[in-house]
Design a protein that fits this description.
The complex is a heterodimer of chains A (about 450) and B (about 150). Chain A is of the alpha+beta class. Chain A has a domain of about 200 residues: Actin, Chain A, domain 4. Chain A has 15 helices and 19 strands. In chain A, strands 3-2-1-7-8-19 form a six-stranded mixed beta sheet, sandwiched between helices. In chain A, strand 15 and strand 16 form a beta hairpin. The longest helix of chain A has 18 residues. Chain A starts with about 20 loop residues before the first strand and ends with a helix. Chain B is an alpha/beta fold and about 150 residues long. The radius of gyration of chain B is 15 Å and the shape is globular. Classes of the chains: A alpha+beta (about 450), B alpha/beta (about 150). Chain B: This is Cofilin. Chain B: It is found in: Nucleus matrix. Chain B: Pfam families: Cofilin_ADF. Chain B: Its main location: nucleus.
Amino acid sequence: MAVPNANTAPLSEYAGDEVSALVLDPGWSTTRAGFAGEDAPKSVIPTHYGVSSSDSRLFFGENAIHSPQANLQIKNPWSADGIVEDWDTAAKLWEYSITSRLTGPKPTHPEKNGLNDDPNGEAMELDAQEEVEKPLTENPLLMTEPGWNPVKAREKYIEIAMEDWGVPAYWLGRSGVLAAFAAGKASALVVDVGANITSVTPVVDGIMMKKGVQKSPLAGNFVSNQIRAMFKQNQVPLTPHYMVSSKTAVDAGAPSQATYKKFETAPPASYRRLQEERVLTEFKESVVQCWTGPGKLSNGTNEEIAKSQPPRPFEMPDGWNQVFGLDRFKVTEGLFDETAALEDDENAKPTKAQTIPAMIQAALNQVDVDQRPHLLNNVVVTGASSFLPGFNDRLNAELQGMYPSPRIRLSAPGNTIERKYASWIGGSILGSLGSFHQMWISKKEYDEHGANIVEKRCK
Amino acid sequence: MAQSGIKVAAECVTAYEELKSKKAFRFILFKISDDGKEIVVDETGKEDDWDVFREKLISSKSKDKRGKEGVGARYAVYDFHHTSGEGIVQEKPGLLSWIPDDAGVFVKMTYAGSKEALKMALPGLAADIQASATEDLEYEGSVRPKVFKRL
């Protein structure tokens, strides 16, 4: 509970009612930003960014990173573990997500904006010796963070906000707790299937049970890599859009007859990989399916049943096309059954502990026995990768299999926006409440207590 | 304080004490005030019939941030009674939060994010039931086993 003690109690409450707060929900795949009180984040930008190999300039945003350039390397500031690695770039990217669509860039200094130029050519005397204005001095900022964020990272978040951006007030919320609240639950087991990481967060009475938080790489990118492995096995050519100049229709399985674009210097491999990822996303959205259970895909006659379901066609950007039957189930099976994961020199087999059912078990084992049935009755599913068709049915079947006696209930908003942006929406509502003003850490408090104040005030 | 910063009005504690010590009510319904600042008493009732209470929860309304009324959420304290085979009566007040899955996200967020404040303001609660679907409000099937665990 964030009960301020005498040392950290607000000295002067920040009057957050007058200006809308900003809400920033940084993820591995996208960075979401918007004003508190709005229903969805207005600014959703890719977290991948481009860096020029000639002059190290940084490029942010959808348009900048998706056009092919010979010297544009694509990178991501997050580590594979789901913690920010490159803080300098993360801070710039996050700032861009806010200033590009929401607050606008800071005004040019009055000396240089042309409005104060003396017609006689002499520079006007201005009170120009002030400090350079920081970019976000107007609005309080609410940020979300993953449940495993180490103390150092939490402190870094508030430092960036207070010192680099000059925000007047700040608050940091655990994304699992925000997602539970947004689903109407003070206690819940939050299963968040993201791009880079799937996590399981037990929340009891509004508090994240830190010891119980589990994470694993069996998430959206894992499924992409399984698809890549399957494509390799079946000699499916993965051709991203930017390479194709025009295509003609060909028969299923026949070689493509497209004309390809010519590049003097081909864009770097990191660029191609990001563009391939977009094709894989289309494939996930239109072809891939989770085996819904009961039982694993490899059990008994399950594969036969899966095979008997109508196959789905897919066409590559260059016109190559094929139908996919059993394979469209196989690429997701590893999320639940490590022995079924496709393996090659680029894809090591996951461990059992990394599978989603095992993570749920591990999370529950860290929670009081009395709470377990309650949490199983309140499983909240969130994250964009949970939209894989059949995912919820399978998760439900796995849980029923592991915990036959208590009632299992999954709650996953059918509303796409609410499921994809659960934590942002939770933060947006909290930050818009009049009552929330006493929760903000003001600039003054930060100056007085230092970055460690987040540990006391944002539990 | 709960994470929403919403506070508990003194009248909630008073009503709870009256239920506990004087058995003045069988149940108390609480809601978040329309100005969103605090949790207040919505209604008290003396009816012995669980279904009367249940019906009140199911038909409750709450306002979203634009002031539009829709599916509602409530907190409640209910004085649960149980008579054993030997005729021994047990009475214990328990907290029940009713935040239905079909309520709007604003209502869900504010009620879930403020519940702790109420729970901490009312000492001596014997149960804490989180109900989000009408089946969670079935007395015999769902509620009683959670309140009287070993009976």
